[in-house]
């Protein structure tokens, strides 16, 4: 029985999707019945702060764009007044009153124009230097932040990164680099502006208060408007300087006192390294507002900003963009909108896929971020189709799977670990983990499974991750990373092996032909008692592979596989959580025994196999699959072990009792088993068994007809029940001639004729892969009905 499982992956967000052959229920769905569709479930950990909540602030960065807008209004107003003042001074004052100006006014105006020119110059370049400070993610010594943090954490894993890692500076000259850092140059220009503005305020106020513009003699036409012109100029200069200082005060208040950048960084959940991204975003928005329309910055958002940086040619800009997209894509709060924007932007998906191939150590974090983003993007099936549709995408993803690893002790890592700093917490994520996760999400689509199978060397890589060994599974100190890697590789293999159609057939063939596939699963069955999920996945893979005849023989011929399955099926003293493993083990044994004479012989050679299976018929958890196994042993053993199968006669009272109980799977499998048991039972023994069961053959005949009347058309849940009923009726008529007359009397012939008119292709198969029938019955139901009708017509 394949159980539906819901997995949670990589820090919440969109969870992983696992394909199953059936649903979890009290009466489990199995591959022995057709499925209307493959169960596909997506787990989502979107919490109460989901983007769908209208009361939630969907875009915290809007606080920065609004802040940039207000600053730009003040800046442009000050610049406009400054331009007007400059024109007034040069055209009106120096042009019209240059000769008549008082010497003091002349020099004051000159000084004001010079300091204002210096302020405007330093203002324009200060923004460039502030912006430049966010272009590089390097420390003062030129080393990369990621590597510095990695080395520090290796020695001090509990230490929190300092602000030094959050600042980014570009040393301009090799001499006295602390002087020529972009950060220090920006500060120098900043203070120069403040000094210029203060000087302008002081000079303008002094002249406006004293009002000493020189005497104007009566009749002096040339000096008639000089006083008004000077007053207007000083007022303009004062207003400009005051607006600029107001802008600076507002800037300092919001950034230093209100800590707006820190607030937005926290709301965006960008972690300890997020300030670089936040500053870069703010300066970009402010630059747009200053250099273009004041509303240009309002159009910006963090996701679009990050996507632009990701397509840049600068490694530092790529890293900033990758960090932002990674954090937003993995955030419960922002993931939905972020993944939607990425999903509709094919060029970004192509860029992310391209980054998976980057092998430069300097680009490790970018590559890892790209893998993590893709693992989230692929959560949505439509996005996974876009990812897989990119030429070479599967090959790029397969490059994440590094198989140079050891599993010799619990302290061994499955592969080399890489570091990602996330929200101030240190989490180790691996390329292997993410590679397997992306492939698992792509494998939800049938065509993608084919692409994975056709990628050269990929299947052996995936199978290699299923290698465990006794020391790994039995060691209590085993790392969660090791178990997770094995689990994901098994999940991926299970999805590939359960693919339907021609693609599934080819995948099962290729998987089973890899020499380590079955032996690796055998180790998991043998030593994985502490990890029932791994055992269940391994058994489900074997069950799916058994759909192919060659694979069935390989599995049975691999020493210990059938023995381990049998041991798991009958394991006692296990918690209820282990029941699912026992059920799928029984299903696997039934599959492996189907149409395989060699496997039937191997099962019957197991210690007390028939006796245990007979005893399991009374165990509610085991009886369905025990009946299936016994039915297949009787049908396909080819006469081998006849003396052992004769033991089934003693189970007839139990089987007959279950046939009378109306149900679905249980009644179906018991009718099928009864038809086989009748072939191994003599007449005298049959009478004894009927007496022991407290019923006679007439009652059984009525039950048979009643089942046919209930199932006038082939049911999807029990597609073989009518076939089994006809087989049972044939066995009863062959065993005892009196049953023929009894069946005529109770109307079996009418029901048989109705079966002829309502037969369906669904009744022609033993097992199903989704809605595709597998393993066609040797004898059609039409032929069985004709045999039964002939027996009834013979007197």
Walk me through the structure.
- It is a single chain.
- A hairpin with a 2-residue loop joins β1 and β2.
- Helix content is 62%, strand content 3%.
- The chain has 37 helices and four strands.
- The radius of gyration is 40 Å and the shape is elongated.
- The N terminus is likely disordered.
- α19 packs parallel to α22 and α22 runs parallel beside α25.
- By secondary structure, the protein is an all-alpha fold.
- The protein has a two-stranded antiparallel sheet.
- Among the domains are: 205 residues, no CATH class; 122 residues, Leucine-rich Repeat Variant (Alpha Horseshoe), CATH 1.25.10; 100 residues.
Observed structural traits:
795 residues, mainly alpha, Leucine-rich Repeat Variant, two-stranded antiparallel sheet, 37 helices, 3% strand
Proportion of β residues?
Answer: under 5%
N- to C-terminal distance: 45 Å
Q: Spatial order of the strands in the main sheet?
A: 1-2
Mean pLDDT value: 78
SSE inventory with pairings:
Elements: H1 62-96, H2 103-132, H3 145-155, H4 182-210, H5 226-257, H6 260-268, H7 274-291, H8 302-310, H9 315-329, H10 335-343, H11 346-355, H12 364-377, H13 381-389, H14 393-398, E1 418-422, E2 425-429, H15 431-442, H16 446-454, H17 458-464, H18 470-474, H19 480-497, H20 501-513, H21 517-527, H22 532-545, H23 549-557, H24 561-569, H25 579-593, H26 597-605, H27 609-616, H28 623-636, H29 642-645, H30 652-659, H31 665-679, H32 683-693, H33 697-710, H34 721-735, H35 738-746, H36 748-758, E3 765-769, E4 772-776, H37 781-793
Antiparallel strand pairs: 1-2, 3-4
């Amino acid at each position: 029985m394949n159980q539906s499982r819901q997995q949670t992956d990589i820090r919440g967000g969109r969870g992983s999707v696992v394909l199953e052959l059936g649903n979890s229920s009290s009466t489990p769905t199995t591959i022995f019945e057709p499925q209307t569709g493959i169960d596909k479930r997506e787990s989502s950990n979107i919490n109460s702060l989901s983007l769908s909540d209208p009361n939630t602030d969907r875009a915290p960065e809007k606080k920065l764009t609004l802040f940039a807008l207000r600053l730009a209004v003040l800046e442009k107003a000050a610049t406009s007044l400054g331009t007007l003042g400059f024109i007034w001074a040069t055209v009106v004052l120096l042009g019209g009153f240059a000769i008549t100006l008082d010497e003091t006014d002349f020099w004051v105006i000159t000084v004001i124009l010079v300091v204002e020119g210096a302020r405007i110059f330093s203002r324009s370049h200060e923004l460039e230097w502030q912006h430049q400070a966010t272009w590089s993610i390097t420390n003062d010594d030129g080393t990369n932040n990621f590597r510095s943090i990695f080395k520090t954490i290796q020695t001090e894993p509990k230490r929190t990164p300092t602000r030094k890692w959050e600042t980014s500076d570009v040393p301009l000259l090799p001499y006295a680099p602390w002087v020529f850092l972009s950060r220090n140059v920006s500060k120098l220009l900043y203070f120069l502006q403040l000094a210029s503005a203060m000087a302008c305020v002081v000079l303008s106020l002094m002249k406006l208060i004293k009002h000493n513009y020189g005497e104007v003699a009566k009749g002096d036409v040339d000096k008639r408007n000089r006083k008004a012109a000077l007053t207007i100029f000083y007022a303009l200069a004062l207003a400009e300087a005051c607006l600029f200082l107001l802008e600076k005060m507002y800037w300092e208040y919001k950034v230093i006192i209100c800590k707006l950048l820190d607030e937005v960084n926290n709301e965006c959940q960008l972690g300890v390294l997020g300030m670089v991204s936040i500053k870069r975003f703010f300066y970009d928005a402010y630059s747009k507002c200053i250099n273009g329309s004041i509303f240009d910055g309002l159009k910006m958002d963090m996701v679009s900003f990050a996507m632009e940086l990701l397509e840049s040619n600068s490694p530092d800009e790529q890293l900033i963009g990758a960090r932002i997209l990674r954090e937003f894509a993995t955030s419960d709060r922002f993931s939905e909108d972020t993944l939607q924007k990425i999903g509709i932007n094919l060029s970004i998906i192509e860029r992310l896929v391209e980054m998976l191939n980057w092998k430069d150590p300097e680009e490790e974090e970018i590559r890892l971020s790209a893998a993590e983003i893709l693992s989230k993007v692929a959560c949505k099936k439509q996005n996974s189709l876009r990812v897989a549709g990119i030429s070479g995408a599967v090959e790029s993803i397969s490059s994440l799977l590094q198989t140079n690893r050891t599993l010799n002790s619990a302290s061994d890592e499955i592969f080399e670990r890489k570091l990602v700093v996330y929200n101030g917490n240190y989490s180790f994520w691996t390329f292997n983990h993410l590679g397997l996760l992306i492939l698992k999400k792509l494998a939800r689509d049938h065509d993608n499974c084919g692409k994975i199978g056709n990628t050269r060397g990929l299947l052996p890589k995936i199978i290699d991750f299923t290698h465990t060994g006794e020391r790994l599974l039995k060691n209590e100190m085993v790392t969660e990373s090791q178990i997770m890697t094995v689990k994901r590789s098994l999940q991926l293999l299970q999805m590939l092996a359960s693919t339907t159609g021609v693609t599934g057939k080819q995948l099962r063939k290729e998987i089973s032909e890899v020499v380590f596939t079955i032996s690796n699963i055998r180790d998991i069955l043998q030593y994985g008692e502490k990890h029932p999920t791994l055992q269940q996945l391994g058994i489900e893979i074997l069950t799916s592979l058994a759909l192919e005849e060659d694979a069935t023989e390989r599995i049975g011929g691999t020493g210990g596989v059938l023995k381990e399955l049998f041991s798991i099926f009958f394991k006692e003293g296990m918690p209820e959580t282990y029941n699912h493993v026992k059920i799928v083990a029984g299903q696997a044994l039934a599959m492996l025994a189907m149409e395989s004479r060699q496997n039937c012989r191997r099962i019957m050679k197991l210690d007390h196999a028939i006796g245990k299976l007979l005893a399991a018929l009374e165990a509610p958890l085991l009886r369905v699959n025990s009946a299936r196994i016994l039915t297949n042993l009787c049908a396909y053993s080819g006469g081998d072990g006849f003396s052992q199968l004769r033991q089934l006669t003693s189970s007839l009272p139990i089987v007959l009792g279950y046939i009378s109980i109306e149900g679905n799977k249980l009644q179906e499998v018991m009718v099928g088993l009864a038809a086989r048991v009748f072939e191994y039972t003599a007449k005298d023994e049959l009478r004894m068994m009927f007496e022991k069961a407290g019923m006679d053959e007439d009652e059984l005949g009525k039950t048979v007809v009643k089942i046919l009347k209930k199932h006038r058309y082939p049911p999807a849940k029990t597609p073989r029940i009518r076939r089994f009923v006809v087989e049972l009726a044939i066995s009863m008529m062959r065993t005892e001639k009196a049953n023929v007359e009894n069946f005529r009397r109770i109307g079996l012939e009418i029901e048989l004729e109705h079966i002829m008119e309502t037969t369906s292709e669904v009744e022609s198969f033993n097992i199903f892969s989704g809605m595709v029938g597998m393993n066609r019955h040797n004898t059609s139901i039409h032929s069985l009905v004709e045999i039964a009708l002939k027996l009834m017509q013979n007197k």
